[in-house]
Amino acid sequence: MNIRFELNGQGVEADVQARTTLVDCIRHHFKQTGTHVGCEHGVCGACTVIVDGDAVRSCLMLAVQASGCKVTTVEGLTPPEGLSPLQASFRRHHALQCGFCTPGILTTAHALLTHEPNADRARIRHVLSGNLCRCTGYINIVEAVYDARGAYADPAGAAGDTIERNSL
Question: Span 2-76: which CATH code?
Answer without folding.
Answer: 3.10.20.30
